N-acetylglucosamine-6-phosphate deacetylase
Amino acid sequence: MKGNILTPAGWILGEIHAGADGRIARIEGVPVAPGGNDAPYLLPGFVDLLNHGGGGMDFMDGEAAVPVVLRAHVRFGTTSLLATTMTAPHAALLPAVQALGRACAARPAGAARLLGVHLEGPYISPGKLGAQPDAPAIATPQDLAQYLDAAPLKVVTLAPELPGHLDIIRQLAARGVRVQLGHTLGTYEDAVAALEAGASGFTHLFNAMTPLRHRAPGMVAAALAHAEFAELIPDLLHVHPGAIRAALRAIPRLYAVTDATAAAGMPDGTYHLGSQTVYKAHGSVRLADGTLAGSVLTMDQALRNFVAIGLDLADASRRVSLYPAQYLGLADRGMLAEGCWADVVELDRALSVRRVHVEGECCVANA
């Protein structure tokens, strides 16, 4: 793999050598200003922590959906991701999480790595469902214990204002699970209390949460005032570029997620998001009433959108790779360095994907 390589120390022009174990054995090269040549860019593989599906399949569809979704997104440079669930009754959600847990055991050939599960529902406010099905619930230690036993549960989204949820945050944080605040009618004070209890992030910042008002600052202000990490959907539909710029100034490690649905990478038409029917048209996916229902965003487009609103390529890269990996505590993904997994995205000068390597395997080779 040769080109302009983005390393933790900066850009070099050189070559990445992967070992037989799928990790980077060494990187050779010399410092370079990447704009001064026509070699491709080599960036760390993209890490997506909020992804419901793609290629016509939804992660709630069961184990057979996993390789379809992982192969759909690797085409766009995503080398690892979290399978994200939808709100559903416990009797339906538990089998879905169990299926995802089994699928985490091995990476299918030619596919991204499934890192674990993001439980986006059902512990959300009935007043901020967004496109989530109308089946919210209060979290209990008993139900969560079953999910924790069923799969590598990495992230849980919840509404902190619901009864007992501060205690749940403490319990999950003690287990190393990242708790994010989202789909919530909570106040600024609810958010601060949740952060003090161990919450560490915000789910699709600005969307499905109380907005910033100068006398009722809400969840958004809590994120802008206190967060080290937060995720955001940079498809330029969910969040205005001006709001993205404000968040970039306030939150040091703001990172991109796709919130992708089964419609990602597919033609316009009718799809499903959990138990909901959704419709892809005009670059978005919506419920019948017009509510945005996830997205058709891919991580390469997220990168290009960050660049389009003014970020340099290295900064944009950190927000689709390094920061989400750091949020999960992964020291061997999200950057190109000796000993890290050889997850590499090769982009042409227009920032289009040419090749993708996952753990050393070439999974995509475009002309």
Q: What stands out?
A: The chain has one domain: 45-329. The first strand starts at residue 2 and ends at 7.
